[in-house]
Amino acid sequence: MSNFYITTAIDYVNGSPHLGHAYEKVLTDVIARFRRQMGDNVFFLTGVDEHGQKVQQSARAKGIAPQQFCDEVSQEFRDLCAKLEISNDDFIRTTEPRHKKVVCEILQKLYDKGEIYKAEYKGFYSTRQEQFLQDKDRNPDGTWPEIFGEVTEITESNYFFKLRQYQDWLVDHLKTHEDFVFPRYRQKQVIEFLKEPLNDLCISRPKERLEWGIPLPFDENFVTYVWFDALTNYYTAVTEKPGFWPANFHVIGKDILVPPHAVYWPIMLKAAGIEPPRSLLVHGWWSINGSKMSKSTGNFVDPVAFADQYGADALRYFVIREMSVGQDSDFSQTQFLARYNADLANNLGNLVNRTLNMTNRFAGGVIPEADAGASGELETELKTLWEKTRDEVITLNEGFQFHIALERTFSFVTATNAYIEKRAPWKLGKSAEPADQAALKTSLATMAESLRLANALLYAVIPGATAKIRDVIGAKTEPNWRDELVWGARLTGNKVAESAILFPRPQTKTS
Question: Which of 38, 80, 97, 105 could form an SS bridge with 17, CB 3.0 to 4.6 Å?
């Protein structure tokens, strides 16, 4: 059994969770669940970033202590994980003692090695992004991009990390590890960024300007800058779990690829004598109805409220089915409802209800054994399609092509419903002919087995619904997931439920 360590980025607690946070957690969860199915010993980390100037300012604006502010908002992210059935093994907070300890150990080690020095800085500073800026960061007309918010000119002493001396090493690392960033075209963006000389990285803020942070272990008058604090969380979580570092994947949004995760993080680790992560999986952004997400304009999806209305499985299914990993995608109520009704309710839900209804109606609620003599071309075609579907889905999932894997899986569900139409058990059930009764048993067994198999491919994406489907047909999970993917007769004799409503028709608001 191989260890497999995967993380999300940690979420900044200056705001409530939105659709982007939900997607990243669901995507990472699907990967984690799939790797567990494939036999890996998975450790899945998520959490929150709780230090920094914006948190300090927001807490003061509310008239509460920063820790209380962090406690309240971090709970929202925990609640999001619970609501969306995220199977994380750990939830880290950067205010935890275990994290502060590791941050201080790494900083002290680098300081003792001479990798950190003190210098005076004069230049421009973005409070919103909590970073120093250079003239090259300006727009062509000399203004500052909106992302930086208010920019002020300051002069102050700070501590700097010798980032630039590792630039050549990082370029070589990227050239010799072509799969360091997924999708690969994102790696080209990193290499392009590195064509310009790096500046050393300011890693501190004076306490008179920022109190809410981890004090530098070698100078209590300064606190640790956000990236040296935040990025270290990935390493903190497994320092007491031998065999899990380096991480197999950090799952992050494209906005924090360069420079934080693809430049600062591997260089920080290299300087500290720690192996860099194996890969960064970089996803795109969600727009809402074709426009940028914005809470102030109301163009916003609250994932918790949405899951309350439609179910966590429906939200999980939509975001994984709709977005190709690495690309941007758009969220609209119209498209969501189209997917919900066509795929979940009318296709998968219909197959479940037909299987239960006809098994109860024609077999006393017990799944019959297929009659080998009654199995014909239709059954052979469906079994052949299953084997093709199973192999394709596993390969697609291994390559993070989950949206295509779902399309293949639901094509098999569609084919099963088409098989039912062709076999017409409701007609066979009216006949007393032995041949028709044999065909009836075979069709009912085939329906149930096809449902069981399709359901097994959907565990990672819609865990709640698939658990219910297993229950209503009496299916059991196997220690080896691949054993579940073999066509057989393991459902024979199982008592099925009378009915199951998995995806009820959404209640839409009327004016």
Answer: 80
